[in-house]
Protein 1
Amino acid sequence: MLGKYNFLRALLVLRDSTSDNMRILVTGGAGFIGSHLVERLLAAGHTVAILDDFNDFYDPQIKRANIAGFVKDVIVHHVDLQDGASVRNLFHREKFEVIAHLAARAGVRPSIQHPQLYYDTNVIGTLHLLEAARLCLFRKMNI
Ligand SMILES: NC(=O)c1ccc[n+]([C@@H]2O[C@H](COP(=O)([O-])OP(=O)(O)OC[C@H]3O[C@@H](n4cnc5c(N)ncnc54)[C@H](O)[C@@H]3O)[C@@H](O)[C@H]2O)c1
């Protein structure tokens, strides 16, 4: 998973390695930033999958519109990061080489009204992703 600095570095690496087709999972790929990243990755020749729960933090139709232009070119996994078993199942079924983790509850003001939801998504959800990657990806890569 990528912090802001490493995320930018990863984008530079991806830009400079367009000949290598990588299998990339973009969490939050239907969101504002994620959908733009997916477009760029597809244009660079990568194979992209999206993990998103299309929740109603804002109108889910906007998220559907975000991905409408490339939905035929990606696999969309409707998975809630809060559901650890579903995240693990996905990683057992699919093999990803890169994860760009952009799924989040992002608004500051609602985080004050719903702190548990933000914790469950942004902290526990990220932990579920890290654990699935550790158990399913890195072990496979070491074989
Ligand atoms: N938009 C900005 O200007 C901005 C600036 C700095 C940082 N960021 C950060 O970038 C990230 C993405 O922001 P954004 O603007 O694209 O937000 P967004 O709300 O448009 O996208 C987030 C996506 O994550 C998905 N998601 C949320 N909870 C989920 C869950 N439990 N399981 C699966 N999917 C889930 C949502 O459905 C949505 O599609 C956030 O971490 C945000 O804090 C955004």
Protein 2
Amino acid sequence: MATQYTQVFTRTYITNLPTQAMEFPDFPFPSDLRGKFIPWQKVKDYLFAYADHFDLRKHVHLNTDVASVKRITTKPVSSGDAHQSPNRPQWLVRTTALQGGGSNEKVFDAVLVCSGHLSVPHYPDIPGQESFSGVQLHSHDYRHPELYTGKRVLLLGGFQSAYDIMIDLYSHTSELIISLYELDVLGLGEQYKKGLLPHNVRTTTFPQAINGSVVTFTDGETFQPDVIIFCTGYKYSFPFLDASCDVTVSEGKRIQPLFKHMIHSRYHTLMFIDMVYLPLDFSLAYLQVPFALKILDGSLALPSEQEMNKEIEADYHDRLASGQKPRHAHTYIFPPRWLPSSYCDDVVSFAGIENNMELKCQCINAAFVEVCKNVMTFREYDYLDPKPAQ
Ligand SMILES: Cc1cc2nc3c(=O)[nH]c(=O)nc-3n(C[C@H](O)[C@H](O)[C@H](O)COP(=O)(O)OP(=O)(O)OC[C@H]3O[C@@H](n4cnc5c(N)ncnc54)[C@H](O)[C@@H]3O)c2cc1C
């Protein structure tokens, strides 16, 4: 594990999910925190406590960068040994010590890629962006609201980063505009129209072009911001995967070929944990890892590579046909078919494993409903009660 851990959290950052949506099923948050939105430091404490409780620290190699993963072909030791089939190659992993240098190579029977997907910024392609005369940054680099005191700020994007930064920032800025994609999943435009957003915040359409200090939006409106903050999401990036892994990432948003958004359809010993974009975040590993283990111990047979690829393509094309964008290839926030619970149900029924995500999905749905109603107040409810007060 490399420790250039992504400093995505501001000093004041409060989680955007209630604790029981985030917690691991076998390690509850302390009872006084259940159902609440908590400061990020308490999440860090929780993760450290988890590592101590299960005595995990001895397994973690800190300050160690996975520099490369290469597929190696092994000769079958005996014919008919399922663990030696071409679908189950081994992997040569080279690591580099971040402090003091030095590298190490080791062969593994399987690789589970858990390198995260919220640290390499994605920028949309806006004509003239390079000509912008003010300050531009990605939400990944946003920290201190005081830096924007008295400024006119444009937030691009209408999802979690945009509303979190808006809430943190609006009282410092003179004017704050949230520029929404055509898919306004959280209904921030509607919330603005209803007067639910702060007095100096409004929403608008997405930029069509930038020319010097002027941003022109698709509806023809213009704005001259001092600062543009791109809340436009992240890209998948696996620079450590050698070409022999046969993994492609198209436009930073679609990893191929991943069956159930997780398993390499040709090399079953290469899997990707928690790459699905759905608000279950790190607890999703509790669903995906039992699935992975069943494949690795041979107790769950996978369909043929062709069948898996067919399902992968069908899922992608159905998404596009239903109005999603190519960037949503692994996203589960679109009702009714691509919701967090749909992904969990699919994995559970395919793998024959316990569904430990049901309550979490209900909790997320309840929170999501409140976010869509009023982004300024959804954290006020206690989500221990699955249906928050109206
Ligand atoms: C602004 C923001 C707010 C969020 N708020 C919430 C929230 O309120 N609630 C919630 O549940 N989730 C939240 N999330 C999402 C949450 O942070 C992620 O779901 C979670 O961190 C995913 O865990 P992970 O272990 O899969 O990946 P990560 O936490 O990204 O961990 C990946 C690790 O892999 C390491 N790594 C990467 N490449 C290499 C390599 N080549 N070699 C070695 N190590 C490597 C990284 O250094 C990192 O330590 C938020 C995310 C962001 C960006």
